[in-house]
Design goal:
Layout: E1 5-11, E2 15-22, E3 27-34, H1 41-57, E4 63-70, H2 95-103, E5 107-111, H3 112-123, E6 132-137, E7 141-147, E8 150-151, H4 182-186, H5 188-198, H6 207-215, H7 219-243, E9 247-251, H8 258-271, E10 282-285, H9 292-304
Parallel strand pairs: 1-4, 4-5, 6-9, 9-10
Antiparallel strand pairs: 1-2, 2-3, 6-7, 7-8
The chain binds zinc ion.
């Protein structure tokens, strides 16, 4: 029997990657192009379909399905985009129906962070772990929770918003209306805002600039990094206490300087989490890998066929 082949689509705000992936997670062929959101989603679907046809032409088997990871919010069950900041004009667009019609094979959708986490669970650092948690620290804090190889679903299929669990109710206001949410204290912008407030006479520095300065031992940058690390550690310790994960993986922009943050995070987990076997939770930093998004999208398709239906 010929291999199962999966069409994998990774839709970002600036770039769309399309690939052909085997059931073993091998990316056989891929290409990418700019998203051009101003041309509308239908134009992108046509380009994706054309790319899939071109990439499949040289393969020995047809596609069994298509997995999509897309910058969110997206509804994985209706296939529709929510109010996506980077994709003007895509709101309410049903990408599953459009791709299924254009390619003649069924499709499944997750937001790109969950797709990435599914791929890491199947073939990467979280291979087979349950629960497996990926914390992405960037402009916000996104958390993907994978249990038994499936994305955790709340009521009505909802995605938990762990970046908005409150760490300090006297903390800064958050975009969600609450105060002291985890991402208002420990994301990249939270670190930049705090550093700017401490040194109002200096030019504002980006997270990457603060990390670089902290690595040279500059006291004000070091203070911003240490504060961020402490809040990251508190949130991660909460996740360890709540879910007792087998593997908790860290990803995202500021984790490129993970050596600045990881020791404090590990110490915080060590100092708390008394009632769970924290020594059995592996906390690690994900390596960046250009093809991880496509493998994740492929796993969206593979895992969806095993997922219990929500009635
Ligand atoms: Zn919030």
């Amino acid at each position: 029997m010929a291999d199962t082949l999966i069409g994998a689509i990774d839709i970002g705000g600036t770039k769309i990657a399309v690939g052909i992936v085997t059931a073993q997670g091998q990316v056989l062929a891929h290409q990418s192009f700019s998203t051009q959101p101003e041309q509308g989603p239908q134009a992108s679907v046509q380009r994706i379909a054309q790319a899939l046809i071109t990439l499949t032409n040289n393969q020995s088997a047809n596609l069994s399905g298509i997995g999509i990871g897309a910058t969110g919010p997206v509804n994985p069950f209706t296939g529709r985009f929510g109010a996506v900041e980077f994709l003007t004009g895509w709101q309410d667009y049903d990408i599953i129906a459009a791709l299924t019609a254009a390619c003649g094979v069924p499709a499944a959708l997750e937001n790109d962070a969950d797709a990435y986490a599914l791929g890491e669970w199947r073939w990467g650092a979280g291979r087979g772990a349950s629960p497996f948690i990926v914390v992405t620290v960037g402009t916000g804090i996104g958390v993907s929770l994978i249990t038994a190889g499936q994305v955790y679903r709340g009521v009505d299929g909802a995605h938990p918003e762990i970046g908005h669990h409150i760490i300090d109710p006297s903390g800064p206001p958050c975009t969600c209306g609450a105060h002291g949410c985890w991402e208002s204290l420990a994301s990249g912008p939270a670190m930049e805002d705090w550093a700017a407030r401490q040194s109002p006479s200096l030019p504002r520095r980006t997270g990457a600039e603060l990390c670089a300065a902290a690595l040279t031992g500059e006291p004000s940058a070091l203070a911003a990094v240490q504060r961020t690390a402490r809040y990251l550690g508190l949130g991660i310790a909460n996740l360890v206490t709540l879910y007792a994960p087998q593997v908790l993986a860290l990803s995202g922009g500021i984790m490129r300087s993970s050596e600045l943050f990881l020791p404090v995070i590990l110490n915080t987990v060590q100092a708390t989490c008394a009632y769970v076997p924290k020594e059995k939770t592996r906390i690690l930093v994900l390596e960046s890998d250009a093809l991880a998004g496509l493998r994740g999208a492929a796993q969206v398709w593979l895992s969806r066929s095993d997922e219990p239906k929500i009635e």
